[in-house]
Specification:
By secondary structure, the protein is an alpha+beta fold. Helices cover 19% and strands 31% of the residues.
């Protein structure tokens, strides 16, 4: 297979904040199952904020699993799937396919012509009030394994995936529209004073009651419970530790309370206990054309914690 590449790069960093790369990745055209016909004339206009359809949640979750597997192999803390970033990524993936363009920037198509609406970070902020943010975009890759291999084989993309300053992730997948047929978006981020809990590298399911938990932050003590039951006794805080799920199949929610001096924090996560492992995915490879952008912004005042919602 002949390979060709095109690179464009720029980096932005404001007020001494960390610079975080945003990556754009393009592969060759590939066919994909179409949902465009079922969506009719649906298009998205403006700088985000609308919810795009879920095309393949398993593919999106698989990408997160592969990201966290790579981070673990390098001793880097896992990322937590977050609904806000997932919506931002899913919107852009759908918009790329439905309006048939390829860019980090968001465009609307008016009378056949593309009109730029906003940049990637403005779009992400429509859902997610980040301190630091990054984005990987790809087109044409058929499977999660294929797109991850493309990203990991590119220095800039890999740097995003292995950035220890990022804590949360959302993945969007769209098929059935545009010249490339298949579009992928990874949106990464961190928010000040948000400390995610991740179970088993954020897998959707487990067939073992014994799970591994990671919690961000530096705390003095913690206590946990399963499914709204009784709290365990307070114990010294650890970022990473083993935990046992209740002895029943189905969705399970693990909650934690954290404290250090007068500061307290609540966090939680969920996983489904099943009797069989997750389905395997096939792997196909594509060529790609990378481009790099970046942005990070500090928040002047740390926000107060919102009500805890266990998204996954």
């Amino acid at each position: 297979m002949n390979r060709k590449s095109l690179a464009r790069s720029a980096e932005m960093c404001r007020q001494g904040a960390i610079g975080v790369a945003v990556i754009l990745l393009l592969s060759c055209l590939a066919t994909a199952p179409s949902i465009a016909a079922t969506m009719g004339e649906v298009t998205f206009t403006g700088c985000g904020g609308a919810d795009a359809p879920v095309v393949n949640r398993d593919y999106e979750a698989r990408v997160v699993e592969l990201v966290n597997r790579e981070r673990a192999a390098h001793g880097i803390s896992p990322l937590k799937r977050t609904a806000a970033l997932e919506k931002a990524a899913r919107y852009h993936a759908a918009d790329l396919g439905l309006d048939n363009y390829f860019s980090h920037d968001t465009y609307d198509r008016n009378n056949g012509a593309l009109v730029r609406v906003c940049g990637a970070f403005e779009r992400i902020r429509a859902w997610y009030n980040y301190w630091a943010a990054a984005e990987n975009v790809a087109a044409g890759y058929r499977t999660p394994e294929a797109v991850m291999e493309g990203w990991l084989n590119s220095e800039g993309h890999r740097r995003n995936i292995l950035n220890p300053d990022l804590r949360e992730i959302g993945v969007g997948y769209f098929s059935g529209g545009g010249d490339y047929g298949v579009y992928w978006v990874q949106d990464f981020g961190s928010r000040r004073d948000v400390y995610p809990m991740i179970i088993n590298n954020d897998a959707l399911t487990t067939d073992n009651r014994e799970v591994n938990i990671f919690i961000y932050g530096e705390w003095g003590e913690m206590r946990l419970r399963n499914n709204g039951g009784a709290w365990e006794a307070w114990r010294p805080f650890a970022n990473s530790f083993a935990w046992t799920l209740d002895d029943r199949p189905g969705e399970q929610i693990i909650s934690a309370e954290l404290r250090k001096g007068s500061q307290t924090y609540a966090t939680c996560s969920r996983i489904t206990l099943v009797t069989a492992g997750a389905a395997a995915f096939s792997d196909e490879h594509q060529i790609f054309l990378p481009a790099i952008l970046g942005d990070a912004q500090p928040q002047t005042e740390p926000p107060s914690q919102e009500s805890v919602v266990c998204e996954w």
